[in-house]
Design a protein that fits this description.
Layout: E1 13-16, H1 29-41, E2 46-49, H2 61-75, E3 80-84, H3 90-103, E4 107-111, H4 120-133, E5 138-142, H5 144-147, H6 153-159, E6 165-170, H7 175-184, E7 188-191, H8 197-202, E8 207-210, H9 218-228, H10 232-241, H11 243-250, H12 256-266, H13 283-304
Parallel strand pairs: 1-2, 1-8, 2-3, 3-4, 4-5, 5-6, 6-7, 7-8
Helix pairs in contact: 1-2, 2-3, 3-4, 4-6, 6-7, 9-10, 11-13, 12-13
Length: 305
Amino acid sequence: MTTDDDSAPFGRALCAMVTPFTGSGALDLDGAQRLADRLVARGCDGLVLSGTTGESPTTTDAEKAALVTAVREAVGDRAALVAGVGTADTRHTVELALAAEKAGADGVLVVAPYYSRPPQDALEAHFREVADASGLPVMLYDIPGRTGTRIEPATVVRLAGHPRIVAVKDCSYDLLGTQKVLSRTGLAYYAGCDEQVLPLYAIGAAGYVSTVANVVPELFRAVLDAFDAGDTGRAALLQRRTVPLVESMMAAGLPGTVTAKALLGALGLPAGPVRAPLRSADRETTASLLAAYEVLAADAGQSQA
C-alpha cells in the first residue's frame, strides 16, 4: 500500500524491522507477524523488511519472499511494505525485486552494490536496470559507511528522472548534498539515521526509516507530529529526549540489529538471536540498553501526565 502523497510515497514513519528468528535460528514468521502488527498499531506508516536491520546478507531469497508474504497478511493495507532487495550483483538484485513484487511488496529498497565499489556511471546503470525490471517504486539506499560507495548527489539527480525511482533512504551524513538534491528533484528523502530525523524533516524530508522504532515506534512519530502541528520547540525537545537510547542502540560499537534484538527480547517481544557473523549482545550490554529504554519510557510517561 503506497500512499497517494507523492511527497511521502511510503508514508512518513517507517520502521527498519528486524527479522525475528526462533531460538535455533530459523525464520520466525509468526513472530514477524506479531511484531509487524505491533509496529503498525503504534504508529508506523510503513515497514522496511530485509534491510540492514533485517539481516538481509544472511537470509535466503526464499526467506525474504516468505517474510513479505507473512507481514502483508498481518498488516493488510494498513502500512506500506518496502522490501530490501539490494545485493552486490545486479542480476540477483533484479531477481529479488521481481520476487518482492510477486510476494506483495509496495516498493523496493536498493542499496549501492557493496564491495566491488562501482564508479558512478555503473552505479547509475545498476539502479536503472533494477527500476526497469519491475513495476514497483524504488527507494535508493545511500549508506557509504557500509557499502564503500557513495551515491553522489549528481547521480541521484539524474536517477530522479526515472519514473519509478521515487525516494532515498539517506545515511550519507551529507546535509549539503541532501539539500542539493531536494532543491533540484521531487524525490522523497527519508532519514535513515535516527539522530537526523528532525534535522532532515525540517529541511523537507518525507520522514524516516528508523531502527530504534522497533522498540519505541511512537517515539519519532511524535517528533514529526509536533513539527507538523507547528510546535517546533516541542519537536526539538522530543528529538533530544531520544539521544540516550539512540546512542545506546546505534553508537555503542554494535550494529543496530544486535541492539534492537537484544532490547526487544528483554521486553518479551519477537526477535530471537542474530545470525553469524553477528553475535547477540551480552547481558551487560542488554542491561544497559534496558536502562536507557526505561529512562525514556519514564520521561514519556511524565510528559503525558
